[in-house]
Amino acid sequence: MPQPSWKVNEVFYSIQGEGKHTGMPAVFVRLAGCSMNCPFCDTKYAFQTGEEWDETRLNAELKKYPCKTVIVTGGEPTEQDAPALFAALKNAGYTIHLETNGSVDTDVSLVDFVCVSPKKYVSAEMLKKADVIKIVVGQDTDLADLKKYYAYENAKTQIYLQPESNKQENIDLCVKLLKEHPAARLSLQMHKMANIR
Ligand code: SF4
Predict the structure, then answer these.
(1) Is the distance from the beta carbon of residue 37 to the nearest atom of ligand 1 less than 6 Å?
(2) Which of 4, 28, 32, 164 is deepest in the core (most CB within 10 A)?
(3) All domains in the chain, ordered by first residue
(4) CB 4, CB 179: distance < 8 Å
(5) What is the three-class DSSP state of 69?
(6) Which of 113, 178, 120, 165 is nearest to 139 (CA)?
(7) How far is the CA of 26 from the centre of ligand 1 (A)?
(8) What is the pLDDT of residue 47?
(9) CA 107/CA 126 separation, integer angstroms
(10) Of all protein residues, whose CA lies closest to atom 8 belonging to ligand 1?
(11) What per-residue confidence (pLDDT) applies to 3?
(12) How far apart are CA 36 and CA 16, in angstroms?
């Protein structure tokens, strides 16, 4: 049987710049493609461009780095066979973090940390599986809609508000919202401020 493969845009070793694990070294596996087409997307370069990677090629690349944490991101990873990717990574002994928009209800039983960042639509099942719900907040954000996510907060799931593009007006809005809902947390895109890839 042929190995499963995934259309991969890039694999690189860097520092997590957002949310709960900000500052953590990790290998990023960026899968190509996303059908959501958000206007503020900062990874549009990953929509079309990618090569097919199977488990053998992936493991050979990952072995180059002295790090056992992989962040699977995109694009939108769940638009491909993400569970097969999680199985391959787990077989190779990696701790797996997933960054997803949560639009596709996906088996994440092998994933150690799930970050759902809801966009135009999101699966309620994926919100229930999230360790973190990271909401990008900009001037166009529907604030009533945003508050619906607060219902998913519990002992496992933390809400983060992330100012769109680190713009000051969006940071100010996030601070206002956080003061109204202090159980949530602020997530800045540290890697952009520090000029880290
Ligand atoms: S869901 Fe994420 S990757 Fe997809 S278009 Fe929106 S911001 Fe970009």
Answers:
(1) yes
(2) 32
(3) 5-193 (3.20.20.70)
(4) no
(5) strand
(6) 165
(7) 21
(8) 93
(9) 9
(10) 41
(11) 84
(12) 23
CA of 121 to the centre of ligand 1 (A): 11
| Ligand 1 in reach of 36 Cβ (< 6 A) | yes
Taking only the tens of pLDDT, the chain with its 197 residues reads 778 999 999 999 999 999 999 999 999 999 999 999 999 898 999 998 999 999 999 999 999 999 999 999 999 999 999 999 999 999 999 999 999 999 999 999 999 999 999 999 999 999 999 999 999 999 999 999 899 999 999 999 999 999 999 999 999 999 999 999 999 999 999 999 888 88
Q: Does 54 participate in catalysis according to the annotation? A: no
**Extended beta strands in 16-87, E state:** 25-31, 51-54, 69-73
Q: Do 65 and 71 meet the contact criterion of CB atoms below 8 Å apart?
A: no
Q: Point out the catalytic residue in the list 95, 153, 157, 191.
A: 191
Close Cβ partners of 114 (under 8 Å, ≥ 6 residues apart): 97, 98, 100, 108, 126, 129, 130, 131, 132
79 close to ligand 1 (CB < 6 Angstrom): no
